[in-house]
């Protein structure tokens, strides 16, 4: 089977949004250029972030359309004016939300290129009946209004925040999508299960728990868990601590409570782990 390939550019419509692939229109397009493209929302402006790159249609997963053009001077004027108008929409929406006493946090607004639609992003801890708000905004701005509620993780990504590490949160710096983060990752990495220490600004488990998880899983492969009982020098012993960086395990001989520190791999490890898997 022949995998047909296409020469494409990767485009983001908003900062750190999913990458959309478009074929070249013949212009000399470079990374960082603003281009006009067709999206599911309509005619929109995107930023070229990678390419040209050769990908199979199977890798792309959808039919590729062509970049319409790199933004010219007239397009840039429209684009800059749209950003100003969007800030006005946000301000007015915030005022009307207070007037209608809606439990919403207005995050941002943006026009698509031809101004036929304006999208207002908001966060909320509950479901919101915003029908009256949509009517008032449509009357005010004479455009199709789409109110889009986003989750708390996307909210922090959009607004930005400082992480516990002292840097900008990963989601607002480089993450394009959120992985599933599980409590087991913190346990695997032998972290103290303290919600305040392992939760991000969004209140969910920190995304960075996933970064080193594969290393820990591989390093702890076949190593007995803390609290388990194993056989050491033909006598039962309880595993007290495991230090994967020092490659050592602290045991306690059950019959006399004597602590023993052993380096990995020791006999139990050799017998109970198939390192060729």
Automatic annotation (TrEMBL):
GO terms for cellular component: cytoplasm. This is Putative PSP1-like protein. It comes from Marinitoga piezophila (strain DSM 14283 / JCM 11233 / KA3). Residues 65-150 form the PSP1 C-terminal domain.
